[in-house]
Amino acid sequence: AGETVSLRSGPRRSASAVDHLSPGTSLVVIGEAICDENVQWWYWEVRTELGYTGWVSEGGDETDPYFVCPE
Length: 71
Known about the structure:
Layout: E1 5-8, E2 17-21, E3 27-29, E4 34-35, E5 42-48, E6 53-57
């Protein structure tokens, strides 16, 4: 709703952040979803409008149940 989402270097919360994406950022999915090592989060491999590639978490919390939504 109002927080940034981390674009990560790998499909896990411990992976370093490549960028921080604002709400409404357009992404292109370039790979299948992968569940992290703790089987808690699904990550999608994506490319941003600026050409950065990385992984974003699909789900969030009670406020934002999904970070990634289709247009």
